[in-house]
């Protein structure tokens, strides 16, 4: 098994890894020569082979090559009813192993990391099955390159003992026909085994997988860099760990959507192209748009609010957002998926807080339940501790002032003097997370009532709050944390146009500037009910929940300042 | 009722509309003065009002102002169990009408076009309810500006006869408390009635609503231009017709997603930012991306295929796509939502065709069933004929050659000589649609086996096809049509890297060019099974199904070459 990055070997810094790669390349070349040799032999033998129509390289395949009674199956749904039956399976050859000239094994793999052992045995002469499997056919099968796509016809049998190395352990397939539909190259740029190792280098910062940071890679299976993975995108995605992460990501979205739909939320699609960089900051992508300039949306904030102004009681969106931030860290991407919601407030903004807390706990509990197999698989590559969630009724919600007090009293020495009217720093967040975990036994908690200095102009100031000496006031706005990292920002928004214009001016922004003017005007068009909402980074909650060393692993096609391919 | 566009009156070309607008403005001013007058009177009367705590302008509202036994309700769920009970409803004032100094009516509206009649009557002196409703309270309510957001407490009663003007016709609300939570301005930029009229001008082409094109607008309710609608986005979205279109759009997405999920498809998210304009053409947005150039995705084509290469059997995506096309027509937008799928092919690409046909028919039949009320509402504004769908088992699938023959034999004179090896023009498509409708009684049909000259490089040539004299061959690729317009392109893709490189060269594209090189390389990384798929424009299928005069009406925030706001 070999990991042989084609272009980016230079980026792998560790000498050990290089050595292992060189060795692996050598082995792969050897394997390639052996395969070529076998292939020649096979060709020579095929001529008089009584089984010659039962195997080979075929494109396209015709259903006529299989027995009429053979049923197409998926490994996921293989059951007792198939025992003794003839089935057709389309799958990848994961590996093959020659037992003798008459017998070989292959591991077949399907989507979702379903694997099964296949056996191919020369059928004895003088029996009715004499022409089913020949020696050349066994040789053909063992010579199929790993990650080739094949269609096999086989009898489903029970193995003598359970096959521990395969996910389907109680059945095996006795091959009667085998066709290569799409061959893989003799040498893979990244083997499945290597693709399923922890990534050694994200080419951004020196990141280590938690709990495994100093382990040596297993002999013969060198790990690879993120760049090698991206250069071999098909193998990156075929890795069981990546399939599991993608499956968890799908469930997170489904849990988010179904929870909100059941509570009267309507999905909508905010635009990506916008006419003004109205949420400020330099982190916005600009582009030439016919005779004007356009920007890529940094969040759906304004549009969520327009939906509320436009007569929706509750809306959510699952949509891409963009940040032109030149941050080459495992926490940042330039494009990611936002899970956003916005809702009418009846009496108090705590309705919003509870809704967001509810949906997140529903997601976390839901993936623990639905994705137990996937989580375990991810942990086998990237070890992590179980996420501690609060029991129902014991959710941890601190005000910003309470959190700061906790930090002063129970946090490390350096945070003895943190203030209630200044935003928290990342080190403070981390320290607070540790204190909260020790005190409340949870990795998930809420900090409410952030000071207005730490919040954007649309955040509603708590009308009951008292200003500090410097005039700083608390807002009806909060952050959610998971494993010491912020995963959500939310709160009540200002729905009164005069109050909004005033806050915008107070923040030093011109209320007449492009985008802002139209934003305020929307609240003058009609009566807009009180409302609030929040935004969650999908990539981040997947990554932090699984304690992945980089958010890039949670994305389908991570976009970083240096990388837009594939 | 008035439509008074603030900035874009100049864009409304018709004199009649201008005249009506001027008249409407005048009326609105009159109404504003009357409202101010009333408001003054109310203020004067309030001082000694025994009911003075039961109404008024409040922000924020406290639950303590309502009776403890009052239950919060939505109009959607109002039922017999509420009769005689006291309820709280938060809704918009749609309009008010004074009957006498002692009695008035109001129409209240909630999301989804749910409306109910509310009655407010001065409670007789000397009864236990004497202080519930006073004359100033009646005046206050009649003076509330339309589209204000209010919270009312009321008794649910049966009206003497059903209220035909409201969606909730079997109940009415007898108001006992009424608070304005968010007031609308005295003069709306676009009234609800005007917002619900057919849009007169899309500022692109002169488009008429089918079937209604030459009707005069009803007296007193002038229609408005699309630009006026967009300048009054909250009122545009509050219009019942727009709420209905948005609700149908949501169902289309849900039907697409649930059908595919039930058939083993996994959702994924293709990127918007890409490193190469690999699908060619000049219609691509470019932007500066740190030290390189980036492009906005024109389709998720390559990424769907990467998912298949990466080990998924079946994938779908619902994602924004971008076209930098300077087309100012009601058929075009620069950003729209693509519904895409891609799947492994077992035996034949007809598996893909049938899957796409199945999901589209499921969508069309599904919205007919689930959205009957909404479709009817849309038709009341934009009249259209029922879409004719084929009965199960009677789907119409023509080859390109058969379609051309049909056009030659049964189409208009001008298409007597159409060829089998050239792409169809839009007039041809329209003419063919009419022939198919007359012959097969359907507005939905498939044309298969397009010539390779009309297809992109990734389309699989039908290996059984015979080349024409000019070497043109049929492909395993098809288009779907609805009401004579193309709504889907799909087919089998090339999965063999050598064949792919050859086709790319044959199309005059350099296989080594950025994006293309990496695309081909992915098929060399592993064995990629045969696969195919298709892409549907969400905005278009909503618009064509409803026969809307412009696709812009189906979008949440239409993006056109001239417009990026709001």
From TrEMBL, chains A, B:
Compositionally biased residues, Basic and acidic residues: 18-30
Catalytic class of the enzyme: ligase
Ranges for region Disordered: 1-41
The Aminoacyl-transfer RNA synthetases class-II family profile domain, residue ranges: 248-558
GO CC term (a single one): cytosol
Keyword Magnesium: no
One Gene Ontology MF term: aspartate-tRNA ligase activity
Superkingdom of source: Eukaryota
EC number(s) per entry: 6.1.1.12
Family recorded in the similarity comment: Belongs to the class-II aminoacyl-tRNA synthetase family. Type 2 subfamily.
Catalytic activity: tRNA(Asp) + L-aspartate + ATP = L-aspartyl-tRNA(Asp) + AMP + diphosphate
Keywords: Aminoacyl-tRNA synthetase, ATP-binding, Cytoplasm, Ligase, Nucleotide-binding, Protein biosynthesis
SUPFAM superfamilies associated with the record: Class II aaRS and biotin synthetases, Nucleic acid-binding proteins
Primary localisation category: cytoplasm
Name this polypeptide is given: Probable aspartate--tRNA ligase, cytoplasmic
Subcellular location: Cytoplasm
GO biological process, one term: aspartyl-tRNA aminoacylation
Species in which this protein is naturally found: Coniochaeta ligniaria NRRL 30616
């Amino acid at each position: 098994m070999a990991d042989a990055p084609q272009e980016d070997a230079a980026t792998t810094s560790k000498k050990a890894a290089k050595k292992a790669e060189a060795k692996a390349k050598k082995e792969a070349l050897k394997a390639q020569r052996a395969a070529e040799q076998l292939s020649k032999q096979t060709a020579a033998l095929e001529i008089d082979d009584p089984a010659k129509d039962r195997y080979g390289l075929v494109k396209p395949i015709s259903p006529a090559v299989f027995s009429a009674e053979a049923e197409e199956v998926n490994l996921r749904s293989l059951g007792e009813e198939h025992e003794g039956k003839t089935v057709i399976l389309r799958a990848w050859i994961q590996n093959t192993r020659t037992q003798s000239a008459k017998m070989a094994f292959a591991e077949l793999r399907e989507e979702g990391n379903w694997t099964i052992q296949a056996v191919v045995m020369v059928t004895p002469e003088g029996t009715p099955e004499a022409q089913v499997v020949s020696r050349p056919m066994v040789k053909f099968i063992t010579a199929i390159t790993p990650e080739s796509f094949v269609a096999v016809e086989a009898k489903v049998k029970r193995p003598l003992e359970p096959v521990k190395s395969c996910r389907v352990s109680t059945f095996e397939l006795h091959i009667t026909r085998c066709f290569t539909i799409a061959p893989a190259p003799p040498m893979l740029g990244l083997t499945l085994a290597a693709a399923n190792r922890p990534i050694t280098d994200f080419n951004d910062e020196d990141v280590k997988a938690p709990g495994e940071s100093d382990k040596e890679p297993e002999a013969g299976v060198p790990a690879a860099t993120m760049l090698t993975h991206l250069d071999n995108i098909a193998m990156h995605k075929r890795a069981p760990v990546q399939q599991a992460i993608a499956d968890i990501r799908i469930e997170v979205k489904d849990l988010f959507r179904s929870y909100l739909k059941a509570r009267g939320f309507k999905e909508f699609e905010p635009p990506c192209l916008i006419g003004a960089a109205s949420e400020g900051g330099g982190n916005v992508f600009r582009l030439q748009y016919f005779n004007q300039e356009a920007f890529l949306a940094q969040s759906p904030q304004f549009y969520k609010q327009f939906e509320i102004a436009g007569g929706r009681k509750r809306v959510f969106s699952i949509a891409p957002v963009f940040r032109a931030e030149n941050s080459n860290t495992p926490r940042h991407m330039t494009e990611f998926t936002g899970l956003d919601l916005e809702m009418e407030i009846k009496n108090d903004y705590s309705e919003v807080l509870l809704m967001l807390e509810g949906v997140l706990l529903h997601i976390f509990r839901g993936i623990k339940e639905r994705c137990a197999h996937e989580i375990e698989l991810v942990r086998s590559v990237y070890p992590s501790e179980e996420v501690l969630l609060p029991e129902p009724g014991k959710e941890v919600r601190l005000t910003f002032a309470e959190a700061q007090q906790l930090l002063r009293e129970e946090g490390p020495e350096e945070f003895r003097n943190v203030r209630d009217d200044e935003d928290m720093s990342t080190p403070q967040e981390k320290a607070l997370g540790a204190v909260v975990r020790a005190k409340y036994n949870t990795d998930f908690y809420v900090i409410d009532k952030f000071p207005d200095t730490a919040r954007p102009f649309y955040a509603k100031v708590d009308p009951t709050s008292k200003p500090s000496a410097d005039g700083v006031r608390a807002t009806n706005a909060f952050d959610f944390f998971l494993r010491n990292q912020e995963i959500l920002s939310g709160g009540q928004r200002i729905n009164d146009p005069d109050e909004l214009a005033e806050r915008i001016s107070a923040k030093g922004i011109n209320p007449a500037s492009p985008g802002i003017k139209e934003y305020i005007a929307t609240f003058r068009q009609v009566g807009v009910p009180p409302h609030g909402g929040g935004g969650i980074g999908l990539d981040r909650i997947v990554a932090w929940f699984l304690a992945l060393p980089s958010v890039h692993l949670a994305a389908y096609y991570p976009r970083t300042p240096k990388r837009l391919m594939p």
